[in-house]
Automatic annotation (TrEMBL):
<feature type="binding site">
    <location>
        <begin position="195"/>
        <end position="199"/>
    </location>
    <ligand>
        <name>ATP</name>
    </ligand>
</feature>
<dbReference type="Pfam" id="PF00579">
    <property type="entry name" value="tRNA-synt_1b"/>
</dbReference>
<comment type="subunit">
    <text>Homodimer.</text>
</comment>
<feature type="binding site">
    <location>
        <begin position="147"/>
        <end position="149"/>
    </location>
    <ligand>
        <name>ATP</name>
    </ligand>
</feature>
<dbReference type="InterPro" id="IPR050203">
    <property type="entry name" value="Trp-tRNA_synthetase"/>
</dbReference>
<keyword id="KW-0067">ATP-binding</keyword>
<keyword id="KW-0963">Cytoplasm</keyword>
<keyword id="KW-0547">Nucleotide-binding</keyword>
<dbReference type="InterPro" id="IPR014729">
    <property type="entry name" value="Rossmann-like_a/b/a_fold"/>
</dbReference>
<comment type="similarity">
    <text>Belongs to the class-I aminoacyl-tRNA synthetase family.</text>
</comment>
<comment type="function">
    <text>Catalyzes the attachment of tryptophan to tRNA(Trp).</text>
</comment>
<protein>
    <recommendedName>
        <fullName>Tryptophan--tRNA ligase</fullName>
        <ecNumber>6.1.1.2</ecNumber>
    </recommendedName>
</protein>
<dbReference type="GO" id="GO:0004830">
    <property type="term" value="F:tryptophan-tRNA ligase activity"/>
</dbReference>
<feature type="short sequence motif" description="'KMSKS' region">
    <location>
        <begin position="195"/>
        <end position="199"/>
    </location>
</feature>
<feature type="binding site">
    <location>
        <position position="186"/>
    </location>
    <ligand>
        <name>ATP</name>
    </ligand>
</feature>
<keyword id="KW-0030">Aminoacyl-tRNA synthetase</keyword>
<dbReference type="GO" id="GO:0006436">
    <property type="term" value="P:tryptophanyl-tRNA aminoacylation"/>
</dbReference>
Length: 330
C-alpha cells in the first residue's frame, strides 16, 4: 500500500476551502492509502498568533478532522510537535536548500512585498517550506494531497529529496502532489480573484466550518457575481458564479459543467440559494459530530496514539539521513 501524507496549519479557523481542498480528500484517500494526517502546529507560529488562539485552533482542527470522517484506527493522526524529528529534519533540509529556492516561493514573495518586511517576517516564516519538506520526507510519502496553493511547496520538496538522494544515496521517496480536479482553489466569496483563506480579516468572503446555517446563507447570498445574468461555468468572465458552481460540484462529486447544466435556467438568487442549501446540508452532520467530539475526553488519547505510530517511522528516517551525511559517530 502506498503512503500518503498531508496536514493543515490551523493558524485560523478552518473553512470551506480547507474542507474541499484538503480534509474531504484525506477522508476519501484513507480507504486506499497508508495515510498520515497531522496538525502543523509549528507552521502556525511562523506568523504572529496568540497562545490562546493557537491552542483553540489546534483542538478545533483535530475535532474537525474526526468530525469530517478521519478514522484514527485507519489513519495516523498526530500533532507535529509530538514527533521531534520534524524540527530536526527541518533544520537538516534547510542546509540542503538554496536561498534562491526559498526566495522563489510565492507564499514568501507575496508577504515579502509588504512594508517593513525585514522587521516583520521571521526566519521561521522564510524556512517554512523546508519544515514542510521534512514533514513529508520523514514518512517517505509517495503522495501529498494538497490544494493548488501548496503545490509549489511539494515541488520544492521533490527537488530537495532528489538533491539529497544524489548527494548521499537513496534516502527519500520523491513525493508527488495530488491536486483535486474540482475545488483545488476555492475563491473568496466577496472577491473571486482571491483565494478563500483562514487568515482573512474580512469574514464575508470565507465560509468557516463552524458557521451557523444563517451565516452561511447570508455569505453565499451576498457573494460577488457579475452582470451576465446567466449561470455558466466561465472562470475568466464569470469568476464569482464559476466559484459557486465549483463549490457545488465539489460537494456533490460532479464536474462544474454538470453543475452548470443543472442550474443554467435559474436566476442568480435561486442558484445561490441552492448552493447555500448544499453547503448547509454538508456541514450539518459535521458540526453535530464536532460538538460531540470537542467536548469529549478522546482527543488526547487519539493524539497520543497517532504520535506513537508516527515516531518510530520518523526516527528511522532521521537516523538514516544523519548516518548518510556523517552526523552520527556510531
Ligand atoms: P494550509 O493550512 O494553508 O491549508 C491546508 C490545506 O487546505 C488547502 N487549501 C485550499 N484548498 C482549496 N481552496 C482553498 N481556498 C484552500 N485554502 C487552503 C491547502 O492547499 C492545503 O492543502 N503548508 C501547509 C500545511 C502543511 C503541509 C505539510 C501540507 C505543513 N506541512 C506537509 C502537506 C504536507 C499549509 O499551510 O496549508
Amino acid at each position: 500500500m502506498k503512503t500518503m501524507l498531508s496536514g493543515i496549519k490551523p493558524s485560523g479557523q478552518l473553512h470551506l476551502g480547507s474542507y474541499i481542498g484538503a480534509i474531504k480528500q484525506f477522508v476519501t484517500y484513507q480507504e486506499d492509502y497508508h495515510m498520515f494526517v497531522f496538525i502543523a502546529n509549528l507552521h502556525c507560529i511562523t506568523l504572529p498568533i496568540t497562545p490562546a488562539e493557537l491552542t483553540d485552533n489546534l483542538r478545533d482542527c483535530l475535532a474537525f478532522y474526526l468530525a469530517c470522517g478521519l478514522d484514527p484506527e485507519r489513519s495516523t493522526i498526530f500533532l507535529q510537535t509530538d514527533v521531534k524529528e520534524h524540527a530536526q529534519l527541518g533544520f537538516i533540509l534547510s542546509c540542503q536548500t538554496y536561498l534562491g529556492e526559498l526566495n522563489r516561493m510565492t507564499q514568501y514573495k507575496d508577504k515579502a512585498q509588504g512594508k517593513n518586511r525585514n522587521d516583520v517576517l521571521t526566519a521561521g516564516f522564510y524556512t517554512y517550506p523546508t519544515l514542510m519538506a521534512a514533514d513529508i520526507l520523514l514518512y517517505n510519502a509517495d503522495y501529498v494531497p494538497v490544494g493548488d496553493d501548496q503545490k509549489q511547496h511539494v515541488e520544492l520538496t521533490r527537488d530537495i529529496a532528489e538533491r539529497v538522494n544524489k548527494r548521499f544515496g537513496q534516502i527519500f521517496s520523491v513525493p508527488e502532489p495530488v491536486i483535486t480536479k474540482v475545488g483545488a482553489r476555492i475563491m473568496a466569496l466577496d472577491n473571486p480573484a482571491k483565494k478563500m483563506s483562514k487568515s482573512e480579516h474580512n469574514t464575508k468572503g470565507t465560509i468557516f466550518l463552524k458557521d451557523e446555517p444563517a451565516a452561511i446563507r447570508k455569505k453565499v447570498m451576498s457573494a460577488v457575481t457579475d452582470m451576465v445574468n446567466k449561470v455558466s461555468y466561465d472562470p475568466v468572465n464569470q469568476p464569482g458564479i464559476s466559484n459557486l458552481l465549483t463549490i457545488y460540484a465539489a460537494l456533490e462529486g460532479i464536474t462544474p459543467q454538470e453543475a452548470e447544466a443543472k442550474f443554467s435556467s435559474l436566476q442568480y438568487g435561486a442558484f445561490k440559494s441552492a448552493v447555500a442549501d448544499r453547503i448547509i446540508e454538508e456541514f450539518a452532520p459535521i458540526q453535530a459530530r464536532y460538538r460531540e467530539i470537542v467536548g469529549s475526553g478522546d482527543l488526547d488519547r487519539i493524539l497520543a496514539k497517532g504520535a506513537e505510530k508516527a515516531r518510530p517511522i520518523a526516527a528511522g528516517t532521521l537516523k538514516t539521513i544523519q548516518k548518510a551525511i556523517g552526523l552520527d559517530i556510531f
